[in-house]
Amino acid sequence: MRYTLELRLDGSLALYLGASEAKKLLAGNNKRVILAFGEHTLHCAILRDPVHGHYLRLAKAHHKKWGISAGSSIEATIQIDQSTYQFDLPETIEEVLRHDSDAASKWEMLSPGKQRSIIYQIGKIKSIDLQIQKSLLLAERLKSGHCDPLTILKTQQ
Questions:
Q1: Are residues 103 and 137 in the same domain?
Q2: Could you give the CA distance from residue 5 to residue 13 in angstroms, rounded to a whole number?
Q3: Which domain holds residue 109?
Q4: What is the pLDDT along the chain (157 residues), one digit of tens a residue?
Q5: Residue 48: how many CB atoms within 10 A of its CB?
Q6: What is the 3-state secondary structure (H, E, C) of 32-83?
Q7: Is the distance from CB of 92 to CB of 122 less than 8 angstroms?
Q8: Contact indicator for 31, 45 with CB cutoff of 8 Å
């Protein structure tokens, strides 16, 4: 399907969904989808604008990287995201949780939103060594009862 991207007040781009498409994608209280166009894929949440309806948000970071801007027209597919975490789980987290059952059980007790936030934070780290350090810190913090994704990966000063 072809979509035209529109600029939002926060500087992000919006891909607005038609009413029937939104209804289909939101079935069963679903809010998570995968947007695919060209060689790009993005796990997204379906958001609601009270004036314009449902849309997908494309952050500023994607604009230059993907060569898109307000008014761009893209051929894209959108499908319900059936993945466990709605992000690819970094191997570093997977390995740490596989070897630390206490941390793994605490991880499973986190809400899906908290899990996604932590996965995103570790996944965006380019250095594999730093990813390993953060994954080990995650396990340590989970076992000590820490579960706030905003602070769980911060190092003590």
A1: yes
A2: 6
A3: 91-143
A4: 999 999 888 888 999 999 999 999 999 888 999 999 989 888 889 999 998 899 999 988 888 888 898 998 899 999 999 888 877 889 999 999 999 999 999 999 999 889 989 998 998 899 999 999 999 999 999 999 998 988 999 876 4
A5: 11
A6: EEEEEECCEEEEEEEEEECCCEEEEEECHHHHHHHCCCCCCEEECEEEECCC
A7: yes
A8: yes
Residues 99 and 60 in one domain: no
Its pTM stands at 0.72
Q: Judge contact between 76 and 121, C-beta under 8 A.
A: no
Q: The tokens 């995968």 sit on which residue?
A: 34
**Cα dist. 76→39, 61, 86, 153 in Å?**
10, 19, 18, 35
